Amino acid sequence: MVKNKSPDLTPRQHTVLEKVWQLEHAGENVTLARLAEGLGIARQNVHTHVLALRDLGLVRYEAQARQTAVIRLTEPGYRRLGKVAPNTPNPPLSLPIVGHVAAGQPGVADQHIEGYATKLGDLLDLHEGDFLLRVRGESMLGIGIYPDDYVVIHPTQEEPLNGEIALVAVPGEDTATLKRWRRDNGTVTLLSENPDFVAMTFRAEDVLVQGCLVGHIGTGRARQTRFTTL
């Protein structure tokens, strides 16, 4: 899940959570009194928000008689803020999601951070069994899939809809191929996204669907081909 202001957090709860992190990061003991002072709100209101954050598993807070309870972020709390908990071994890189880019008409860049992504599952609808394949060949250049890029595949033997991109095993090939699928009665045509590669047509019973395309990860900077114009 992308870490952002999820519906289960009110704006005030998110502000309290951020203040807990700021005080922790500054090396302070985070108490109700310190939060109330830093936020400029009543201590009782802070207490209500902290209890809600605790119930969501985002902070640790245990009030004890005659002791000042210290509030600490939990690991999910750090993740919700797009932060890495201290002493986390090999912390994952957290990338901000800063809005949308105009692929049509030019627009003003949106610098509002919508959330943070640290793993593929933050961006793609992944399921158990999904896997990565490294791309070999240039048959899918027309949709921006280059050699040495990665594609995310969901394993399935269900027949794709016409026009969908599937991982398919075909006769005479040792490895499966990634192509656009087109079914026409008893035959299947596998289409490339590169005019240098001819369409391949087989009897439907001779091809085996092994998966469907979930996502694509480019490994290089934008590259110019004959499919692009400057």
Description of the molecule:
This protein has 230 residues and is an alpha+beta fold. Among the domains are: 70 residues, Orthogonal Bundle (Arc Repressor Mutant, subunit A); 87 residues, Umud Fragment, subunit A (Ribbon), CATH 2.10.109. 18% of the residues lie in helices and 23% in strands. It is built from four helices and eleven strands; from the N terminus they run H-H-H-E-E-H-E-E-E-E-E-E-E-E-E. A seven-stranded antiparallel β-sheet has the order 5-6-11-7-8-9-10, with no helix packed on it. Strands 1-2 form a two-stranded antiparallel ribbon. A hairpin with a 2-residue loop joins strand 8 and strand 9. Helix 2 packs across helix 3.
Structural class: alpha+beta
The SSE string, one letter per element, is HHHEEHEEEEEEEEE
Q: Determine the fraction of residues in helical runs and give it as a percent range.
A: 10-25%
Distance between the termini: 37 Å
Give the percentage of residues in beta strands: 15-25%
Please count the helical segments. 4
What is the level-2 CATH architecture name of the domain at 131-217? Ribbon
Domain Peptidase S24/S26A/S26B/S26C: 96-212
Protein name: Repressor LexA
GO molecular function: serine-type endopeptidase activity
Pfam family, one: Peptidase_S24
